[in-house]
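thread: overnight batch results

M.L. [08:02]
morning all. the overnight job finished for the chain we discussed friday. pasting input first so we're all looking at the same thing
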Amino acid sequence: MDFNLTKQQEMVRKMVADFTENEIKPIAADTDRNSEYPADTIKQLFRYGVMGMIVPKEYGGAGADDICGAIAIEELSKQCASTGDIVATHNGLCCGPIIQHGTEDQKKKYLPMLTTGCKVGAFALTEPNAGSDASKGTTTAVLDGDHYVMNGSKIFITNGYVADIFVVFAMTDPSKGTKGISAFIVEKDFPGFAVGKHEEKMGLHGSPTAEIVFTDCIVPKENLLGVEGKGFNIAMQTLDGGRIGIAAQALGISEGAMKEAMDFTKSRVQFGKPISKFQNTQFKFADMEVAINAGKLLTYSAAAKKGTGARFTKEAAMAKLFCSENAMKITTEAVQMFGGYGYTKDYPVERMMRDAKITEIYEGTSEIQRIVISSNIL
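M.L. [08:03]
and the structure it wrote out:
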């Protein structure tokens, strides 16, 4: 068993780490403060091949493996979890299901748009009454000749008001519950598509979250993704992959917060010596280091298993659960180490703490992850 990264994986880490330090870190605070979508940063990430990193080269992508994809999100999230979220959603939740379930025509049309075409992708499953329980969705898609007519709304959609391409889930046969859900590729320019409420959130202020509304939206028949009635399966498989991305995001937040806390405690002198010299502080950093390294093993292992084509549901859930809960613990501890300074916006740890919370909630709450893990072992 080889725990070393490949040459390509190391190159991706260095490239994204350098980009994050030079391009993202200087604007991260303003991105959060102004709730500003980092449009210029995303354009550069398209040029670097990060947007579409896991897309095969024949469709305009970088053709990298899933570990590379996780590493990119991890590095971005060390300084700006919003940027990590935008990339994770685009790659894992939009490009991912098209790669896995799209027809050749769909791949040839949409994947180049999502890579070299610089079109941002999104994933639309959640509804006001359908969060963890997707069977309660009420968005419908009714076949009418050569197209479907879609009606309903989706909420909490990451990239919602900047995305061009959406993977949308709708009921094609409401009487069948989850077996009546189908998946579609929807473009923002389709008649009847509209963006609703822009969400104001606790954290991830640079990641655009919005309601999406369909009013007699016309979706061509050929934009059905996979087989009619199999949308729930597509959604769950996609979320498995997406959970690796969230684990990587949480991991990056943890690493960023720990680095900030280490730098601060080395320079902050109290009672005649740096805070970092107190054993209580040292023990906290020891616990952080253990949690971060364990999280890396879980995340990279899940990504590696995904790359083999084997089922990785449990592994993704474990990585997401462990990394997200530790991100909350580590960022909270980092704020505590800063004392009163940690509660101000002069330092990034308060932003990291706010950003960390959502990793315990979206793409399956911690409670849902425990259900997934236990159902796979009992």
